Amino acid sequence: MRRGSRAVWRALRGVHDWAASAPGTYIWLLTVYVTTYVYLHLPSDDQTPFLKRRSTNIHHLNTDPLHVLASSAVWAEGSHLIKFTVMFTVIFAVAERWMGTWRWLGVAALGHVGASYLSQSLVLLGIKTGELPERMRNAVDVGPSYGLMAVAGVLFYKFAGPTRWVYLAALGAYVGFPVYRDRDFTSAGHVTAALIGLACYELVKGRPKWDLRTSRPVTRLAARLRTRGRAESPLLWENSGK
């Protein structure tokens, strides 16, 4: 029992220390938890109109941009708490710990604002050409995903060596495939946000990089495999001159 309670205590302490090292991330996530609770407890007929009043759509970006740019980042359509918890931890928290709270927040804000305006510009173009209906001027457009994708973009510079290009390919596939599949303004916004993050190199210039080839767990594993190989095949190692 004592050993089990110690393990639980160490795990809780680790979670606390991790969250404390990325305060902005978890304040934002906690706010999303609260707003999601409020949204889910609204009458179903009121949910969509409620979100529209907080959306970065064409109508509100023209009439009340500051309010909707701030409010839309903490509201989400539906319940995505598990998804957001994972993404905030893997993307936001890692970036905040690496680049500092203010730089992290700056990249997220640039991505959120820039992608909101560009994606809605595409909507406006679609309305003017007749490809989209007039009601899209007041579409629902909420959530922290543009900020997440911008920060995911700047995280490219955290990696060194081949890992960097594997990461970029994975990010490109994640934001690029929905553009082909869905062809909607949200997908275009995600691509825009990732590109904005990639353009933020100067904010992270000189920050330490992470290389999979020299990371501690990988080097330890490689050393163990070499040691095991020598123990199991001593003659082979001798003949090889190692």
What does this protein structure show overall?
The protein has 242 residues and is mostly helical. It has two domains: 188 residues, Rhomboid-like fold; 32 residues. 74% of the residues lie in helices and 0% in strands. The longest helix has 29 residues. The chain is globular.
Radius of gyration, whole Å: 23 Å
Largest beta-sheet details: none
CATH superfamily of the largest domain: Rhomboid-like
Highest CATH level, the class of the largest domain? Mainly Alpha
Q: Would you tell me the overall average pLDDT?
A: 87
List the total number of helices.
13
Approximate shape: globular
- From the helix content, strand content and strand pairing, which structural class follows? mainly alpha
Show unreliable segments.
235-242
Supply the CATH architecture of the largest domain.
Up-down Bundle
Q: First CA to last CA: what distance?
A: 48 Å
Strand coverage percent? under 5%
Number of domains: 2
Classify the fold: give the CATH topology of the largest domain: Rhomboid-like fold
Order of helices and strands: HHHHHHHHHHHHH
List the helices and strands and how they pair.
Blueprint: H1 2-20, H2 23-40, H3 44-52, H4 58-63, H5 65-71, H6 81-99, H7 101-129, H8 145-154, H9 162-182, H10 185-198, H11 201-204, H12 216-232, H13 234-239
Any descriptors?
242 residues, mainly alpha, Rhomboid-like fold, disordered C terminus
Task: Write a compact overview of the structure shown.
The chain has 242 residues and is mainly alpha-helical. Helix content is 74%, strand content 0%.
